[in-house]
Amino acid sequence: MSVFTSARPHPPLRRTATVIAATAAAMVLGAGAAFAHVSVNPDTVSPGSYSKLSFRVPNESETASTTKLEIQLPQDTPFASVRGKAIPGWTVALTKEKLPAVITQGNTTIDEAVTTIVFTADSDADAIGLNQFGEFDIQVGPVPNVASITFTAVQTYSDGKIVTWGDPTPTGGA
User: Fold this and answer.
1) Tell me: the pLDDT tens digits for 19-34?
2) Which of 43, 92, 93, 140 could form a disulfide with 79 if both were Cys (CB 3.0 to 4.6 A apart)?
3) Residue 47: cis peptide before it, omega within 30 degrees of 0
4) Positive/negative CA dihedral, 37, 154, 21, 51
5) Whole-structure pTM value
6) For 144-159, how does the pLDDT look when each residue is reduced to its tens digit (9 = 90+)?
7) Beta carbons within 8 Å of 172's beta carbon, 6+ residues apart
8) pLDDT averaged per 10 residues in sequence order, the chain, 174 residues
9) Residue 11 near residue 43, CB atoms below 8 Å
10) How far apart are CA 74 and CA 149, in angstroms?
């Protein structure tokens, strides 16, 4: 899953990992799975801003619910500040790590950053069921002044199946 910025005032938010091939989805989710996706919104962000990103996660398994979402943040274009929005029935955990190299963005020097955010359902009743979706919000900033930032989303189902969303969206957007 990919996001964002460039020197333009409102760069497009590339939606990487928003679609996966049906054959790959069928291999991971089982027969009957259609095109699956995790998407991130908004479509534009401004370099230097603090932005709310919403990760929309549909449950497309016929037999299991979505119990966990892991969002992997990049280490090469880190955010100095990351926060996860509390969701009733879900626990949010942020993992902060030392970066491989110190990064300077404007007046900010970053030597450690949040690299992973994990949202976990507190119970089966709180999980995302069939024909439902969940939205998981994070606040990040300041947004680095780069052409794009790539995220990977890892979706876990109650039957133990895991789907990793990290491939770029094809040029045609399908």
Assistant:
1) 222 222 222 222 223 3
2) 140
3) no
4) positive
5) 0.77
6) 888 888 889 999 999 9
7) none
8) 43 35 24 54 87 94 96 92 97 96 86 96 96 96 88 95 77 58
9) no
10) 7
Residue with tokens 């091939």: 21
Six token digits for residue 139: 């606040």
Structure tokens of 167? Answer: 């491939």
